[in-house]
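Quick one:
INPUT:
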């Protein structure tokens, strides 16, 4: 019961509205976990929180509701009327849940002391849910991207990448070994925004600090780069981390250290990695038989040899020149995706 001895229904109405808001938001997140990600654990987490909220949603609070006289029902904002992507939808509803839980925590203290404590604890549970959900959504999107563009320096890099995105590309890595940090940061920011505009993932090569700064979806590390553990400390728990490998030993080490995916190659000789001898299709076949995590074949792959790489077991391939040096990046992307769709 309310500590104050007055007949005001203001507090019960606030609690009722935000209990509804939190439950509705959680149900939206739960449906994506269940049907979009097919992740029973995340879906169950949402369900358990919904049931806990329902326990607090007593008849005393429900009967305080006065929808016809609620001035808030007519309030809206243009940003609430559209959702540009699944990521946007999920983020909007996670914010909605968190805001509702904060209201329940504060006003709940006036209703029942335990209510404030309960919703404070739940708010932290939702923060953890958000982190897991963002990572899982990125990871699932990564696994469903058969074609991975790794960029090479080019004055027209933005227009080339956008043309590839228009051709259906959903995964881009920005790689530039020579430019100054300020230039890399500027280009990375623009590429990240461009990729997210097309609902594609953006991965930063080598530089975990830049990945974090521009809100990239992940970082890709070479054998000579920082450890996966250090990269994880820098970019946080919800970004993807990949590691290049050239042999079974490097593969095993990357997996043991917690890589989310590995690069397998260079399959063929490539000017991108002049110091790396080609590992051939045998290593591709080895990855097919032995890697428990996603892997991408990379190195000198183009339309002419793509079928051989697919036959060796690759379901995801990375290309550089096949798109970056193509006369028509959109068409090149479409042709590569068409072949990969037949695998």
């Amino acid at each position: 019961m309310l500590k104050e001895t007055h007949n005001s229904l203001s507090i019960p109405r606030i609690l009722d509205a935000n209990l509804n808001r939190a439950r509705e938001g959680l149900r939206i997140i739960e449906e994506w976990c269940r049907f979009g990600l097919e992740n029973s654990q995340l879906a169950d987490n949402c369900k358990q929180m919904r049931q806990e909220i329902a326990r607090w949603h007593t008849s005393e609070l429900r009967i305080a509701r006065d929808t016809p006289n609620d001035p808030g029902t007519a309030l809206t904002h243009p940003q609430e009327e559209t959702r540009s992507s699944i990521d946007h939808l999920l983020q909007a509803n996670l914010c909605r849940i968190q805001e509702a839980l904060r209201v329940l925590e504060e006003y709940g203290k006036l209703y029942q002391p335990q209510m404030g404590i309960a919703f404070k604890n739940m708010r932290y549970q939702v923060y953890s849910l958000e982190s897991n959900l963002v990572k899982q959504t990125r990871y699932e999107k990564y696994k469903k991207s058969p074609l991975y563009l790794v960029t090479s320096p080019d004055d027209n890099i933005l227009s080339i990448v956008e043309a590839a995105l228009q051709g259906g590309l959903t995964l881009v890595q920005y790689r530039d070994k020579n430019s100054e940090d300020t230039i890399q940061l500027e280009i990375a920011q623009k590429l990240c925004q461009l990729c997210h505009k097309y609902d594609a993932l953006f991965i930063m090569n080598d530089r975990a600090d830049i990945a974090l700064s521009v809100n990239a979806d992940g970082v890709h590390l070479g054998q000579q780069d920082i450890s996966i553990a250090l990269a994880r400390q820098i970019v946080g728990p919800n970004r993807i981390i990949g590691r290049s490998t050239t042999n079974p030993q490097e593969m095993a080490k990357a997996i043991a250290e917690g890589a989310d995916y590995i690069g397998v190659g260079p399959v063929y000789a490539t000017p991108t990695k002049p110091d790396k001898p080609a590992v051939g299709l045998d290593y591709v076949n080895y990855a097919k038989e032995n890697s428990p995590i996603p892997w991408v074949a990379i190195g000198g792959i183009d339309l002419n040899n793509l079928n051989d790489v697919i036959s060796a077991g690759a379901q995801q391939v990375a290309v550089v020149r096949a798109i970056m040096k193509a006369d028509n990046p959109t068409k090149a992307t479409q042709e590569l995706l068409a072949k990969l769709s037949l695998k």
